[in-house]
Predict the 3D structure of the following.
Amino acid sequence: MPFGLGGLASLLTLGIAVTGCGSDSTQSTSPPSQPSQPTVDTVSLRTLANGKGRLIGSAVDRGFGYSGSDGVTFKTTLAREFNMLTPENDMKHERIHPGRDVYRFEPADSLVTFADANGMKVRGHTLIWHQQLAAWLTSGSWTTDETMALLVDHVTKVVSHYRGRVIEWDVVNEALGDNGSLRPSFWFDRIGRDYVELAFRTARAADSTVALFYNDYNIEGISPKSDSLYALVRDFQARGVPISGIGLESHFQLGAVPSTLGANIARFAALGLKVHITELDVRMTTPATAAQLQTQAQNYRDVVATCLQYPACDVVVMWGFTDKESWVPSAFPGWGAALILDATYQAKPAYTALHDLLK
Ligand code: XIL
């Protein structure tokens, strides 16, 4: 078992980690109808994934002790069910680099410390993206050379800070439009297409071993966008630009997992790349019906079963795990219920489907 700790060991570490991480009030203030322990299987997803040599992860919003996701139930469930986490927002430019000469690592550090204490791996998300950029950056007027220097400074400082603690980085996030061309963005508009390559080369210079990923949505199946990424990767490989893998975000609508997911994973894996599922959720119109929840379970199962067929697909991260804390209802009004536990931490059919699959 190459990764982390087994279920029993992780349970033993929980007390230490939970008391060591910020203020916790969720459990003591929960209404009586909310169980203190989730009614999920006694053998966790994490234990089952460990047995298959896979990492199963969740995004976590907000560093522990800073607000948000820091209740006891949240943390115990996170550490019991997952052997990997991704900071949902705390490593993004606006959070981690709020002033030109100001880096604020503490919130993300608290998540990395929690992961370390609980034998979990960390995906770094994300270095260069067109969204959630600090205002000091977007409101400045910068020449091409200045923008390149700002990119290099940002990537170097953040990657260096987490050297040895983050196992893979989303170096560039969502650079492609749906038509497959590089989208206009703060970085593209000032540097041109070379910004993508500059980010990867700079990350590699800052950490000689961490895995370097390109991450995006609508590249899960075979499409003009994933074809374009395929060409970009082949060009990188031909010219010696470092790239270790691609991240398939996998924010799916109910019933819309692409049928070409497996073929697409296969073609990128054949290039020697890792292909990781990085932000999986399956959203539905709410309130959810029993039939929708069954379809959702089938969709989760299909994604993870397809991934399991390929050694290159050894990481599956969901974009959260409880419907209590998910980006979906605010990003897609009228939609929700996208994760595998409900808002009271009860197992949904999707949890059971993954559990049965990993057994
Ligand atoms: C989302 C977060 O979940 C939200 O909390 C935030 O307000 C916006 O960003 N693709 C990505 C993620 O790569 O970083 C996004 O996360 C979801 C889509």
